[in-house]
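Forgive a beginner's question, but might I ask you for the amino acids of a protein and the tokens describing how it folds?
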Amino acid sequence: MLELRLSRESWLAIPKTVVTITKLLLHDNHLQIHGDPDLFTIPWNEKMFSEKKKLKMVIMKTTVFFPTTPGIRRAIQIAKSKLEASDYVLNSFINILTADQSRYLLEALSNDDIDPVLKPTLRLLRPLLSLFSARLMPVYLGLGGNRIRETHQLWDEITKKNLYKEEFLSYWRELELDLCIAPCFACPAPRSVDVAKLSPALSYTSLYNFLDFPVGILPIDKENVEDQTKLEIEYKYFDAVCKLVKMTTKGATGMPLAIQMIGLPYQEEMVLCGMGSS
């Protein structure tokens, strides 16, 4: 297993480096001249970056779909403690993914265009979904369906995405949030042979890619011996993917543990401000 050797000082310098690079990219229309000329001209917002105010953040340590390892949860706790020491307002993440007893998931499976090969299997599984849906991997469920064949179907999906984004933004603003802190992945960097098998762990980042939200990745600490001990004792899940997580995390002592800081569109300065406080 490859071990990345980064000093703590180099980790602390990451936000400053990213800020400098971002400012340079936005300076004198650099992105438009040397990149995409169709991009909007958006200058660096120094007021948003430097304004001294209590940022309101929400913390997500794990999800029921893909539980994080003890080391990742510890990294989130470290970031939380640092932000609390900086007098930020922090709230816990409310898990709404299965709040409807998976009715939406069941309806989607009933109405979606499912691969004929998978239909017999899903017909057998459907009565059981409501019993253990909190442990299902949505990424795997989606592999066999939702195939877009015609242009009008694509436009329908784009409309659905925009409606979902509006709903998400509305909920975010209702809570008056500035930022969200969450894991980047369910475990430290896995072995290269296991990466493809752990695609459901992308659920921690794919949502914000889907929504086009700015995200900053910040190393917090490294996997230690205590994390490895707790992995054996606490990480007791019995599906194949979580077993693989446990196996690939064994021996990961010294690997970086990172968090992601998520903000609203066109508020990269707010994200960088939060990263500098973590």
Observations:
- Residues 1-12, 94-102, 129-145 have pLDDT under 50 and may be disordered.
- The chain has twelve helices and five strands.
- Residues 8-95+178-277 form one domain.
- The CA atoms of residues 179 and 263 lie 5 Å apart.
